[in-house]
Amino acid sequence: MRYMNPFVTEVDFASGELSAPGYVIQRKLSDMASMYADEAAARRTLADEGDRLIYEVQGVELPDEEGQIPHCTTRILPGRIGDEYHMTKGHYHARREQGEVYFGLSGRGCLVMQTETGETSVVQMVAGSAAYVPPFWAHRTVNVGDEDFVFFSVWEARAGHDYGTIERDGFRKLVLMRDGQPTVVDNPRIS
Ligand code: M6P
Ligand code: ZN
Fold first, then answer.
1. Ligand 1 centre and the CA of 177: distance in Å?
2. Going by CA atoms, what residue is nearest to atom 11 of ligand 1?
3. Residue 117 sits in a domain of what CATH number?
4. Residues 6 or more apart from 43 whose CB is under 8 A from it?
5. pLDDT tens string for the chain (191 positions)?
6. Does any domain span residue 138?
7. Which of 73, 69, 64 is nearest to 14 (CA)?
8. Rounded to whole angstroms, how far apart are CA atoms 135 and 176?
9. Residue 125 belongs to what domain range?
10. Number of domains within the chain
11. Ligand nearest to the CA of 159
12. Chain center to CA of 41
């Protein structure tokens, strides 16, 4: 563990932009078409409209060392693929015993969580919501509003991102538009 200097980052609540991002990740529909429940709709959208930005992450650069506290913003653009709202890929932590905190900055979203033993939880997030992802819970965020959904995240450096388990198994709960309203439904692909 080395000493390093303290620093401050200015965060734009509406856009999630950081004053000096250490990294920016953009995820487009082509990066995650197979994660949408209606993959055919995702492929059709790509063919008819071309690629689209689904979400962007801006974070500070920190050493990958135990005790460091990475933090970032995520901005999910509004929209749907078929009936399913724009969402992040979602992940378990490689170190399952590490939790995470999300803080809503603007817009409206859902935080979809599940454990490997079959428990599920979906909580609403608006500006000012501090949502806790306990250890062992996979987490995905979904924009259920008409404007950008932006939130701030804080976790422990050694948590790590396990995307493979979700890519293989998916989430048990989906957030779809039904009668014009965001509705949580069971994922038909998971019995
Ligand atoms: C949150 C945090 C980040 C994560 C980001 C996007 O800000 O959990 O660690 O990278 O959401 O989610 P994902 O990595 O699942 O695409
Ligand atoms: Zn995480």
1. 23
2. 74
3. 2.60.120.10
4. 33
5. 789 999 999 999 999 999 999 999 999 999 999 999 999 999 999 999 999 999 999 999 999 999 999 999 999 999 999 999 999 999 999 999 999 999 999 999 999 999 999 999 999 999 999 999 999 999 999 999 999 999 999 999 999 999 999 999 999 999 999 999 999 999 999 86
6. yes
7. 73
8. 26
9. 23-186
10. 1
11. 2
12. 21
For the CA of 140, the closest atom of ligand 1 is 15
In this prediction the pTM is 0.98
Does residue 71 have its Cβ closer than 6 Å to ligand 1?
Answer: no
Q: Is residue 7 part of a domain?
A: no
Q: Give the atom of ligand 1 at the shortest distance from the alpha carbon of 90.
A: 15
Residue pair 140/153 in contact (Cβ under 8 Å)? The answer is no
Q: Residue for token digits 């913003």? A: 73
Return the structure tokens found at 151: 């939130």
Using alpha carbons, select from 116, 113, 111 the residue that is nearest to residue 126. Answer: 111
Contact assessment for residue 138 and residue 155, using Cβ atoms and an 8 Å cutoff: no
In a domain, 47, yes or no: yes
98 part of a folded domain? yes
